[in-house]
User: Fold this.
Amino acid sequence: MSEKLLNEDIARQVQEAFGQLAEPVEVLYFGRKEACDYCDDTQQLLEEVVALSDKLNLQVYDLDEDAVVANQYKVDKAPGIVLAGRDGEKAQDFGIRYAGIPAGHEFSSLIQGLLLVSSRESGLNSATRDFLGGLTEPVQLQVFVTPTCPYCPRAVILAHQMALESPLVEAEMVEATEFPELSDRFGVSGVPHTTINSGAGTVIGAAPEEHLLAEIMRVTSKVVN
Assistant:
């Protein structure tokens, strides 16, 4: 058996945090047998985390062999993670994704993401909720991060809150060093770097909610009041 990734102290802290879990969460993991340096560690990390609460369940898929499921959840990178709600036997997709291992500081965004999905409550302010409720076109948020960036989880969590609030928003954490071609395409030179709709908009840094909302408004041709 391989050595555990979570030491006893971290596991205990996470288990205590999971005392706040309300609704069940389905964790979907997509790996790949070849050319995926972090797939094994990512799967092991998720197995250890999910084991800390009976409100969490893990499904393991192969990105290539289970392409139909991957396409259903719009996962095109490995390791890939989807945090979905569980409603009986059915998973409810909120558009909350991770591309790359959520290690280092990003481990906190994984735990916060699980708590967020379990709560079914975005926690966003009323202006943001009102705008997202009126969206008529899809919004894709890709938050580029590195494990050593202490400010990145804030940007990831904010994007995931917006995805939870609106069925038209998808938000994906992207570990920049694992996907260098994608990082280069969007000119990622520092993190966190949030790309909106494949480069139509960009927010650099762990911007406040109002700042990200304003950029989404600009991209979607909405007028900022």
Summary: The chain has eight helices and eight strands. The mean pLDDT is 95. Helices lie at 8-17, 39-50, 67-72, 106-119, 126-133, 152-165, 180-185, 209-219.
